[in-house]
């Protein structure tokens, strides 16, 4: 599996990035506009910088750079996801995509669902949680943990065949919609976890 790290301009979990980077988890690291500054501060040179660089304020030098006009119909994150997919990524782990501007966060969540449906394994890393996108028929599995909060949301009008196992409140073959809070704040109970969906795309908020 070829895994790309995308680093955007929002809140950057440098500790989690460094942990995964030390495990050689990333086949390619792309700085998405202002994400270049986060990587520079962390002392990590990306393989590529991409964007219109309005957030960063300058065009990086000394590395491979793909520059776009600021007058465009796609966000820098969307362009980075497209680039990762066209370059052969099977999985993307996205940093710096959550927090700060709510409109950017919502746009990114919608993009992550779309690219999950296009065949990418997508995980967004926040300060305290990962958001894993699962498009059916598929499931997410995690080893037993004693404590933590897990939320599951539909990214479509209706996600069919949703199940949650190994949590305080289990679900079995239910339809989850994007017009309800059902799926919010389930609890880990020290058992292995499996969460899946038969049809549709779900976003799983899981503690780091």
Query: Any guess at the CATH architecture of the largest domain?
Result: 3-Layer(aba) Sandwich
CATH class of the largest domain: Alpha Beta
What is the β-strand count?
14
Give the fraction of residues assigned to helices.
Answer: 10-25%
Number of continuous helical runs: 4
Helix/strand structural class: alpha/beta
CATH superfamily of the largest domain: Thiamin pyrophosphokinase, catalytic domain
The tally of structural domains comes to: 2
- The amount of beta strand, in percent, is 35-45%
Biggest sheet: strands, sense, closure? 10 strands, mixed
Instruction: Specify Rg, calculated over alpha carbons.
Output: 17 Å
Topology pattern, helix = H, strand = E: EHEHEEHEHEEEEEEEEE
As residue ranges, the low-confidence spans are none
CATH topology of the largest domain: Rossmann fold
Shape: globular
Q: What is the averaged pLDDT score?
A: 96
- First-to-last CA distance: 22 Å
| Cross-sheet strand order for the largest sheet | 4-3-2-1-5-6-7-14-9-12
Write the layout of secondary structure elements.
Blueprint: E1 3-7, H1 14-22, E2 28-32, H2 35-41, E3 48-51, E4 65-67, H3 76-86, E5 91-95, H4 102-117, E6 121-125, E7 129-135, E8 138-142, E9 149-154, E10 158-165, E11 171-177, E12 186-187, E13 193-197, E14 201-207
Parallel strand pairs: 1-2, 1-5, 2-3, 3-4, 5-6
Antiparallel strand pairs: 6-7, 7-14, 8-13, 9-12, 9-14, 10-11, 10-13
């Amino acid at each position: 599996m070829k895994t790309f790290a995308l680093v955007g301009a929002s809140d950057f979990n440098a500790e989690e990035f460094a942990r995964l980077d030390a495990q050689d988890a990333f086949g390619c690291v792309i700085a998405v506009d202002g994400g270049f500054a986060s990587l520079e501060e962390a002392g990590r040179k990306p393989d590529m910088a991409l964007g219109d660089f309005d957030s960063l304020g300058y065009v990086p030098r000394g590395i491979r750079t793909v520059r776009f006009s600021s007058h465009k119909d796609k966000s820098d994150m969307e362009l980075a996801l497209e680039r990762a997919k066209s370059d052969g990524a099977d999985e993307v782990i996205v940093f710096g995509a959550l927090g700060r501007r709510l409109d950017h966060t919502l746009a990114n969540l919608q993009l992550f669902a779309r690219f999950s449906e296009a065949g990418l394994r997508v995980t967004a890393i926040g300060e305290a949680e990962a958001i894993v996108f699962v498009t059916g028929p598929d499931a997410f599995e995690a080893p037993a943990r004693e404590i933590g909060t897990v939320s599951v949301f539909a990214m479509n009008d209706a996600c069919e065949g949703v199940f949650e196992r190994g949590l305080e409140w289990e679900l079995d073959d239910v339809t989850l919609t994007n017009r309800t809070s059902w799926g919010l704040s389930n609890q880990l109970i020290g058992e292995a976890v499996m969460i899946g969906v038969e049809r549709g795309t779900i976003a799983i908020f899981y503690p780091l």
